[in-house]
Amino acid sequence: MKKYLVIGNPIEHSLSPKLHNYWIKENNLDAVYEKKQINKDDIGGIVEELKKGKIDGLNVTTPFKTSMVPYLDHGGLIPLAERPPEVYVGTSLEGKSVNTIFKQNNKIYAANTDGSGFHDSLSFLNLKIKNKKIFVLGAGGVVFSIVAALKWNGASKIYLSNRTKSKAEEIKKIHTNNNGKSIIELFNWENLDKNLPEFDMIINATSLGLNKNDLIKLDYKSIGKNKVFYDLIYNAEGTDFLSKGLELGNSVYNGASMLIFQAARSFLIWHGINPLKEERLAGTINHVFPNFYNHNQTIEQ
Ligand code: NAP
Predict the structure, then answer these.
(1) Are strands 31-37 and 251-253 parallel, antiparallel or unpaired?
(2) Could you report the per-residue pLDDT of 77-113, keeping only the tens digit for each?
(3) Ligand 1 binding site (Cβ under 6 Å of any ligand atom)
(4) How many CB atoms sit inside 10 A of residue 13's CB?
(5) Which of 22, 103, 113, 248 is a Cys-bridge partner for 262, taking CB atoms 3.0 to 4.6 Å apart?
(6) What number does the ligand 1 atom closest to the CA of 258 have?
(7) pLDDT reported for residue 127
(8) 75 pLDDT band (50/70/90 cuts)?
(9) Nearest by Cα to 295 from 209, 222, 216, 220
(10) Largest Cα–Cα distance of the chain, in whole Å?
(11) Domains of the chain, with CATH numbers?
(12) Are 287 and 259 in contact (CB under 8 A)?
């Protein structure tokens, strides 16, 4: 039986096992997918297990997407560039951050399916990004993918704010051209509770919201209504960020659809099967997120 694992810390909230095991069963595969909470020091040992064939594939989640990179046999990172989403499937790295690990010809490779997953979710939710101004909160592993996908989709401006400013600066640097121009403008984390710039969509890409009492100190009132609030978190309880967005009259979406689409790309890499190919999306949503439409609401304008 093949064995797949998602590793992270915390990991209890992860719905990846529910999702992958559903598809494994649907496709009659002899495999199992489990979750494991690890510490940074455990990564080397787990990669060894992959090399020895004790594990057949890994998903890597918060906060190890960047720490995993040095353990890969990919022979150098492929720089982050404006590549179309399909390039990510099985072949390339997103520069600094990976979420799908697999073995091929005795070598350990990685891909990052977060960008494609986010891109697919924008299409599914019918969210148009072209010429839109987007405010992104966070600069962790996933934000490399989010920024890339926003660029593929034609965003005109990306405001980026992170508690640790140097990480936001690093992402901005990657997206600055030779003339010093960048689609990214940094916004001080300390100023989130005052004077926010005008934007069309705000994305919570921090892990604030994973815990019930987490609050993002945003100047919600100044945001007003008719904007899009997108939280990458897909907690069944929802997040304060989405509740406040909805209360103000904004459309709100959680990370459920992104989770499903990025997982489908991982599944394709490992098993060679697109689990969403045959109209399986509705069944998958229903199985993993029975309350999907409570947390994903479009305000009619
Ligand atoms: P990460 O690399 O660990 O980054 C965490 C981010 O959250 C950093 O920007 C960090 O800021 C910020 N943060 C954490 N605690 C904070 C606090 N107390 N105050 C302010 N900022 C704080 O994680 P990641 O991989 O980028 O993932 C970020 C989130 O996206 C997670 O909630 C994850 O579950 C979610 N996600 C969802 C999907 C999906 O498919 N729906 C896919 C990927 C990720 P610092 O840099 O200052 O530490």
Answers:
(1) unpaired
(2) 444 444 444 444 333 344 567 888 888 778 888 878 8
(3) 62-63, 65, 114, 117, 138-143, 162-164, 167, 205-208, 210, 232-234, 255, 258-259, 262
(4) 15
(5) 113
(6) 40
(7) 97
(8) very low
(9) 209
(10) 56
(11) 2-113+262-293 (3.40.50.10860), 116-256 (3.40.50.720)
(12) no
- Residue with CA nearest ligand 1 atom 46: 164
Residue nearest to atom 34 of ligand 1 (CA): 233
